């Protein structure tokens, strides 16, 4: 990593919002990238809308090109130690990758074949997309979301359009998410399951209304009916799994850092099923083999020093492949992601001072300012360049949401949100 001096000269007015509009983010488990801000779908259950500074952009169905080329995106990736360590790249984190296909496909072609890329879309594939994705790429996984029609969720598009459009593609490159599943989603969910080719990997996604108060009265699909769908999928020969490591990382011969989440599942039937997938997986030895703890501890100390983090006590092993690491400085989930991939063994690291994640009731985007400063100084993340892109995007948004070209209307309330940072 190349040390630099942090440039504090930023537009004050925007500073607290900038990371939310970075085209590249280092988040829990991924490097996420997007070539556009906003989305034209306005799904009622969209989690991207949970962030107050983006809500209106998504509600209006607006899409802003962030002026970043595929080549520039790749040069940022290649400047990041996380990319070199093998952190999975995720396209379409804040929007739908299908809305940024042109630049994304160029990036996929240029990216190093040893880096796993996940492409997230719910949009039926167009002819050019099918043409591009019918080439089998070992490092590419399409995570396709088929949402059953539902009055209560205001979903009117037929999910079968997506299912049919993906028929020409190699199913090894596909992982299906069926959901979110509301009480009135059952019929379409059955049709999707029955239409996918046997052996498809899929996840039945329950409805999650957290942070979406307008959905508070929507009834989720009952556990019993989700269990029926699961049985049906298994009978059709599908792989029903919450994890897509087998379809993504394992295809480029890497292990899964969060394997303890699979082995520690409480539901014995589900655990047994997931472990049977592990047994059949080519990365089984990497995920379930013996851990070389002394060399892991040595590598951990070196990586922490590179990050500028100081160990405050000896790392504590919390599971077969999990460690809690106490450090003095504020840290980030993005740094955990880096460590999970840089230590040459499949392990999960938790840093005691990292920001809270969504599952802990914390803010969705709250990386500490000191962390960003350290990332810049360490050459760990191209903070200043990303700030510049985000400033342009925010200016565009301000212009769009300005009444008669003068006073800001919608986004004015967001300027008082001070605790936002990189999506965690
Ligand atoms: S062995 Fe299991 S945990 Fe590891 S990549 Fe394969 S399915 Fe995932």
Give a quick precis of the structure:
The protein is of the alpha/beta class and 424 residues long. It is built from 15 helices and 13 strands. The structure holds iron/sulfur cluster (SF4).
Please outline the helices and strands:
Blueprint: E1 24-26, E2 30-33, E3 36-38, H1 55-59, E4 63-65, H2 70-79, H3 81-85, E5 88-91, H4 101-110, E6 117-121, H5 127-133, E7 140-146, H6 160-165, E8 174-181, H7 186-195, E9 201-206, H8 223-235, E10 239-240, H9 259-263, H10 268-279, H11 284-288, H12 293-307, E11 316-319, E12 322-325, H13 333-342, E13 348-351, H14 369-378, H15 383-400
Parallel strand pairs: 2-5, 5-6, 6-7, 7-8, 8-9, 9-10, 12-13
Antiparallel strand pairs: 1-2, 3-4, 11-12
This protein binds iron/sulfur cluster.
Iron/sulfur cluster binds at residues 243, 245-246, 249-250, 255-256, 259, 262, 277-278, 281, 283-284, 287.
Rg: 21 Å
Largest β-sheet summary: 8 strands, mixed
- Record the strand order, biggest sheet: 1-2-5-6-7-8-9-10
What percent of residues are in strands? 5-15%
Q: How many H/I helical runs? A: 15
